[in-house]
Design goal:
Elements lengths: L5 E4 L2 E4 L5 H4 L3 H68 L19 H7 L1
Antiparallel strand pairs: 1-2
Length: 122
Amino acid sequence: MGKVKKVAVEGYVVDFGKLSSQSRGIHGSNMDALQALLNTTVGKLTENNDALEPGMIVMKEENKAIVMTLNTRIEELEGELMVYRILMGKNVLGAISIHKINVLKPKKFKGARSARDVDNLL
């Protein structure tokens, strides 16, 4: 059997010696071409990852700052809401205050009534 080639990519190992029987028959030059293609692809992916990583760190820090700002604002609004609820509660209780209204009571009848007066009422 020929030389076994292994490629390690971020913790993963590709062992070309253990590939299917069809791939074992590949000529050495084709294997070298595949190896070069794989190395180029891995290199490009690593470069892209390295380029994106600082941007992601910056975005993560910006998101942390935004979340802290929003949490502070939420706490302020919750405090204002509590004050408004207290004020509205006092106003509602004040608006429902119970007042006694003086209603004139009829005077007691002094004297006699005739049946005619009663018929006139109806």
